[in-house]
Design a protein that fits this description.
Elements: H1 5-8, H2 11-19, E1 24-29, E2 33-39, E3 45-52, E4 56-58, E5 61-63, H3 66-88, E6 97-102, E7 108-110, H4 129-139, H5 148-157, E8 168-170, H6 172-181, E9 185-187, H7 188-191, E10 197-198, E11 203-204, H8 206-217, H9 225-228, E12 231-233, H10 244-250, E13 261-262, E14 266-267, H11 268-275, E15 283-288, E16 292-297, E17 310-313, E18 319-325, H12 330-345, H13 352-363, E19 373-376, E20 393-396, H14 404-429, E21 436-440, H15 450-458, E22 462-464, H16 471-485, H17 492-500, E23 507-509, H18 513-538
Parallel strand pairs: 1-6, 6-13, 6-14, 9-12, 15-21
Antiparallel strand pairs: 1-2, 2-3, 4-5, 7-8, 10-11, 15-16, 16-18, 17-18, 19-20, 22-23
Helix pairs in contact: 4-5, 11-16, 12-13, 13-14, 14-15, 14-18, 15-18
Length: about 550
Amino acid sequence: MFMTDSDVRPPADLREAIEQGRTALGIELGSTRIKAVLTGPDHAAIAVGTHDWENQFVDRTWTYSLDAIWSGLQACYASLASDVKEKHGTELRTPGALGVSAMMHGYLAFDTDGELLTPFRTWRNTNTGDAAEALSELFAYNIPHRWSIAHLYQAVLNGEEHVGRLAHLTTLAGYVHWKLSGEQILGTGDASGVFPIDVTTGGYNTRMLTQFDDLVDGRGVPLKLAELLPAVRPAGEPAGTLTATGATLLDPTGTLQPGAVMCPPEGDAGTGMVATNSVARRTGNVSAGTSIFAMVVLDGELSRVHPEIDLVTTPAGDLVAMVHCNNGASELNAWAGLFAEFATALGVSADSNTVFETLFRAALLGAPDGGGLMAFNNLSGEPITKLHEGRPLFLREPGSTLSLASFMRTQLYAALATLRIGMDVLQKSESVKLDRMYAHGGLFKTEGVAQNLLAAAINTPVSVGNLAAEGGAWGIAVLAAFSATRTESQTLDTFLTTSVFADAQLNTADPDPADVAGFDAFMQRYITALPIQQAAVDHS
């Protein structure tokens, strides 16, 4: 078990650190929760704030309003400030460093006056297929549906009026950072989900920038893409400071003061890598929440383009193979809610943690192959399986036994199935080797369940550690501290290994041969049943 700062340091020391600004504040806007984490001098979390929110499906587009972004951030920060006051008897006025992270990709487009031109289009939208296919062919480089450049080119293809007034586009993390600091900047990892990065220079790929400009000019849309994109900064470089306006945006009470050093904003994939100490080559991590994705830091280039694999970077700029699946634990959450409702109808009181613990533990007793049950967790489209819209399904063979144990194992397998398809490309087609694979996110909170099944799914040992329990908000706080304290020769990997994770303890699960064989059998049936999922989309 990791110990927090408050476990090992006197309360007066922590209060002094807070009052002297020897802290780092990380804020991450996830798909269902905004979270803030304040870390002390030893990088452990000393206070936490949260705010739950949810995307809206408006005009067939997944989105969040700007009002929801700022009201959510203010509520989250207020929750954090209250936690600081309660735990440490003081007010948070001047954190030494600040970082913002958010769900990667998507499209926020602004005019010259800084006005939003079209509702925020999140990573969850998969209506950019024509653009992604055309750009992938043009660049000879896989461009996923959710990348910002795919959204922009789809708008061009659709003849959307706003394109002619476009002055600046960014991600959600980049937008919040801009408003807090006045700087239009992205961290390298988040930028790599906007437009391809040249890992030799650390900037956008200039050949592809020119190709894009020529492409849209041929359609009568004279754009200079380099002028529209945020500047790129690697981890460790300062990216402005919290302004007075930004401080008021976060904390309308006026208690928070300007001046905190800000690190480059990052996406949740990059902060997940930091939170699991998996930024070195031949390491990887799996993050599981609303979406599920694997990040594997490569030794070198892949042999060819694979539509299942995105090439992005670590926050430091190293090449990463990303397997991103739009659908993760949301369907599991829905079933857990149904079981909780049934328990309430029986007059049994059970909190959500107890419900999840009970259901997940049951999965360990299920048939290794799911016992003839099948599930699809697709609430939204899933590019890896070429599904344009989602239709969650549960089905079973007539001779199967419908038990809670096998049902829950099947639901957990379904959450991992699309990830397995992408990992097969890396591990089998490309022979990519992994020294370490870490896991974090809500799916892994119940010890020894999803972790064990993931180990079986990818036939690789999977480690979970307590520091990663605070997730990307803690990861961006660590990146903020790195920007504020970095020495000239210090790399991100060195900083994490020697300063943050030096005393880390991990719980590692090795693949169980019976579960490996069971998951393989489940996957054969899953792939065979994919046309059923498509038929549900086509006929409902």
